[in-house]
Write a structure and sequence with these properties.
Layout (H helix, E strand, L loop, with lengths): L8 E3 L1 H13 L5 H19 L5 E6 L3 H15 L3 E6 L6 H12 L3 E4 L11 E5 L11 H13 L3 E4 L21 E5 L2 E2 L13 E5 L15 E3 L19 E5 L6 H13 L4 E6 L4 H7 L4 E4 L3 H10 L2 E4 L7 H12 L4 E3 L2 H8 L8 E3 L3 H8 L3 H6 L1 H12 L2 E4 L5 E3 L5 E3 L12 H14 L4 H19 L13 H8 L6
Helix pairs in contact: 2-3, 3-4, 6-14, 8-9, 10-11, 11-13, 14-15, 15-16
Length: about 500
């Protein structure tokens, strides 16, 4: 079986190093041979991506990533492409030193980088400065070079990972290359799909270097990329009672829109019945805009109780507020023991009064809410989104969706999926309210919390990408409702 079947699997840096060592120790493939394979794959990628490039400059560091770069330069030279190398130092060791010797023997041009120096003229720069082992900010000389490359306007191919990006976390602790394309080797590194990675990697290519499938045996992936999923067709004799009754709770003074968006997304993704518990002042607007929502004005827990008894699933938080009204409804909802999705102020209240869930629950925090739930800063969460998502899931006993670029879905048992869809246009009000409704609808229709979160995040992000075909700026949450309906039925949206 071909190793390419592992391309949806995501690994840590430590795991990829172990795979590399297996290839050398168990399969008898030398490190220098692997380096040659990587260089060949990278040069082929460069030629495909920029077929008219006639001059390239390769930026080499002293490690094995730099070794890849020297061999890429050698291949370019042999192919008649004009090439120059800019190196941070001549301190290459091991296989990287062999690669540097190979380049020097061909008589190519090499420059030692000096701060303030100009870069060679080129159609493409090849970033081979730092590999996946870097977990700190680049040193001063490398930082100056990275900043010069980024300011040049010349397209960049990053080798294995854009220099300065942490391959485990997707965080940039300092300067980092902004590549137009990245080719990564052996296995996909998990940090290249979340956080700041989206602004650094460009088009991402994975090359397994022709390694056999046996290499991956006994090495479980740390995380997995989401598949495009939807629910299957309904039975021909299905009725509304088969698809669950969702109670959406929220909409304090001035936030009727939040609970309406949540409720409407719940309907569009197939819930049989959707009730809304909200402020009485919102009823006219809700009934006029979407009569299919069964909206009720509630003043407190006593009026909420009969609605809870009829519901099979709860969506708590959109527009809820953190005042006495919202807190009373929140507490009553959580004490009911019903399966639920918790978002927005539902999460802020949970940060104040923490509890571990014993019934199916999905929490959908953005990084700021995640920080409050963990007692950390937003920056701490973003520094290692994988650790934050897993800690939240384990602490609260719930499936957690850590929203943001490359949303993460974490299970208390340690499983984690990464969403590859979505776009910056979705950074607008109401998107989280929709997601809450989508996931609630899927749970109401029989999905586990884990499956509902995975399917729901994918549907929501893909709907956002469909809606963004008309432009990312000005994208509204309600623009996603039509594509959500189509995609949840397994249909393409025009």
């Amino acid at each position: 079986m071909h190793a390419d079947r592992h391309l949806r699997d995501l690994y840590t840096v430590e795991q990829v190093r172990a795979l590399d060592r297996r290839a050398i120790d168990d399969l008898g493939i030398s490190g220098f041979e692997l380096m040659n394979r990587a260089a060949t794959a990278a040069f082929a990628c460069l030629c495909r991506q920029w077929p008219h490039a006639r001059r390239i400059a390769v930026l080499c560091g002293p490690g094995n990533n730099g070794g890849d770069g020297y061999l890429i330069a050698n291949l370019a030279y042999e192919a008649g492409v004009g090439v120059e190398v800019v190196e941070l130092s001549d301190a290459a060791r091991g296989d990287a030193a062999l690669a540097r010797d190979t380049w020097q023997r061909c008589g190519g041009i090499t420059h030692r980088w000096q701060q303030g120096a100009s870069l060679p003229q080129a159609d493409v720069y090849v970033d081979a400065l730092y590999g996946t082992g870097l977990n700190r900010a680049p040193e001063a000389a490398a930082t100056a070079l990275i900043e010069r490359i980024n300011a040049s306007g010349i397209p960049v191919l990053a080798v294995d990972i854009p220099s300065g990006l942490n391959a485990d976390t997707g965080h940039c602790p300092g300067a980092a290359i902004r590549a137009q394309a990245t080719i990564s080797f052996i296995a996909a590194k998990r940090g290249m799909y979340t956080g700041q990675a989206a602004t650094r990697t460009g088009v991402l290519h994975i090359d397994t270097l022709r390694l056999p499938d046996i290499l991956w045996q006994g090495m479980p992936a740390d995380a997995t990329l989401l598949d495009a999923m939807h629910l299957g067709p309904r039975a021909r004799d299905a009725h509304k009672g088969d698809s669950g009754h969702v109670l959406a709770i929220g909409g304090d003074h001035g936030t009727a829109g939040a609970i309406r968006l949540c409720g409407e997304a719940t309907l569009r993704c197939g819930a049989g019945l959707v009730s809304i518990a909200t402020r009485g002042e919102n009823l006219t607007a809700l009934n006029g805009a979407r009569p299919e929502l069964m909206a009720h004005g509630v003043h407190g827990p006593q009026e909420l109780q009969p609605m809870l008894e009829r519901a099979t699933m709860l969506a708590v938080g959109p527009g809820l507020g953190q005042g006495a009204w919202g807190h009373a409804l929140w507490l009553t909802a959580l004490d009911s023991g019903k399966p639920l999705v918790l978002d927005a102020d539902g999460l802020n209240l949970l940060a104040r009064e923490q509890r571990r869930f014993t019934t199916p629950a999905v929490l959908t925090p953005h990084p700021g809410e995640a920080g409050r739930l963990l007692g950390k800063s937003t920056a701490d969460v973003q520094t290692d989104r994988f650790a934050a998502a897993r800690e939240l899931a384990q602490r609260y006993g719930a499936v957690v969706v850590l929203k943001g670029s490359g949303s993460l879905i974490a299970n208390p048992d340690g499983r984690l999926d990464v969403c590859i869809w979505g776009n910056p246009g979705m950074g607008s009000g109401g998107m989280g309210d929709l997601l809450t409704g989508v996931i609630a609808a899927l749970m109401a229709q029989g999905c586990s919390a884990w499956d509902a979160a995975r399917i729901g995040v994918g549907l929501h992000a893909r709907a956002g990408d469909v809606a963004a075909r008309k432009g990312e700026r000005g994208l509204l949450a309600s623009d996603l409702l039509d594509p959500l309906r189509a995609l949840s039925n397994g249909l393409e949206h025009d």
